[in-house]
Amino acid sequence: MKSMLTVVVVDDHQMFRTGVRSELAGSVTIKGEADDVDTAVAVILEAEPDVVLLDVHLPGGGGAEVVRRVHQRAPDRRFLALSVSDAAEDVIGVIRAGARGYVTKNITGPELVDAIRRVAEGDAVFSPRLAGFVLDAFAGTIEVAQVDEDLDRLTEREREVMRLIARGYAYKEVAKELFISIKTVETHVSSVLRKLQLSSRHELTRWASDRRLI
Amino acid sequence: MIGGVAAGLAEHLALDVFWVRLAFVAATFVHTFFGVVVYIALWRLLPQGDTDVTEQPAGLASATRRGLRTPGRSSRLVRSDLGQVLALGALGLGIVLLQQQLGWGLGSGVLWPLVIAVAGLALVWRQADEAQRERWAGNSPDVPILGLLLGTGGWAVLIRLGLGALMIATALAVIIAQSQGIDTLGPIAVGTVLALLGLGLLLGPWIHRLGRDLAAERRERVRSQERADMAAHLHDSVLQTLALLQRHAGDPRTVARLARRQERELRDWLYADAAPDGETLRAALASVAAEVEDLHDVTVEVVGVGDVPMSDAVGAMVRAAREAMVNAAKHSAAGHVDVYAETAGSTVEVFVRDRGAGFDPDAIVEGRLGIRQSIYARMDRHGGKAVIRSAPGEGTEVRLSMTLSDRDEESGR
Question: H/E/C letters for each residue in B237-267?
Fold first, then answer.
């Protein structure tokens, strides 16, 4: 646990990569950089970092494509998606492809380090905006006859956690608000992530099929 | 059914497509060819709808074009009205047969070849249309001349095309064979005319498509001009901001504010799902948040789930939320405010939260008009509720909630 986390930064903007490098210096080790899908796949497979910081929009097919191709060879690689775009379908697309979290590029340095650590430990990282998308996608009632009922709806607790995150609460604050442990919050968020990736809900499949994810 | 004329007309007349189709079938039997002629004429004359090109926000469209994301495939292949078409076809066939029985129709020597020919033609024309649609979707690069009729469909298409041509040829042969028995001069004339006719029909789709491609090209040119205008506008605004940033380089607050404003503008243009200012709760909150950002040097992030159209009550809520944002910006010393709006059924909730200084809500002095008048009283007046949670050092959260009556929802629509 003492050794520093290793990270590969994938982004097609040199300026952003430099910025991240200087912000993360001292907190994590940057093992490589890449600026398009092909190099990214090669660098990631070579460097085997704990976490990949991945831009959603990338020459060669976008971040989702990188996740898909790396996961074919190394299914355990962990990705944290970063984007300025905030377009629901792209964010959901990259999460559905297998990224474990999403943050916006204007996140502060310490927050980013925290998010990287969380993803490295196998937890999920949701920004308020992603939580909002999730609530939107899982909103409303759906046919009871739906096959994967479990995957297609959030439990009351998961919904509460998502709402608090959407309201700007950090995990710690969510835990305090709901009188549960941080670990439990993390469990709920991970389970939401799983549903997000596996559910066949109409709203999600529409986003996903737009990205040719299924 | 073939060119989507019925559907287009139905859309224009705001009728269900079924009735239009029925009208076409009916028209066909007022005079045998009337309906068909009208259909083909309309096919040529009606402007093609723009449904082929799905509108995307500029940012996404550009990212797609530059290959920064994986674009979606067109999913127009689902034809929910196939059953309806079949039913109408059967109905039409039934009426034709009825006419035959009653002796009003054509001689059976002509009818059956005609039926076969029509079916063959349908196959060929249908193919032409589909090949073109695929090109429109921009999936295939320019198709060579031979490929024009074939499109990109491969063997299935070839077979379909061959079958169509074969059916037409059969029909022609039958007619020629029949007419030869009656007249000795006729066959040559009829044969020539029919051959030309057949050739024309075969080439028809191709010529027809050339015309339409020309139109498509024209439209594309108009569109790229629009894009150029937008890009110019964009560059102006961004360049302006950059110039301002340089002049204010020594003043971090101004720099942050300018950058934030420019970011918002760009983001709106690139990624907005385009609810025009102030017409729905979320749009109104977003524009209020922008105002507060500009006036008070904070960032306000608005996240929304569900939405409602504006009404008096929703408007009051937005104003109360604005007051809460302003308070957070002015008094909390936090640089960031989170706003979350959720609409579920007729219940609307808005949360405004900061992680700033906080205060003791029980100790609000009478003098602080903001909270009393603008938040509590305003929500009260419209049947809503405001709850403020805060403690010194723990930040503040203002929770506004309201159950909209039917009347509110009506007046908003």
Answer: HHHHHHHHHHHCCCCHHHHHHHHHHHHHHHH
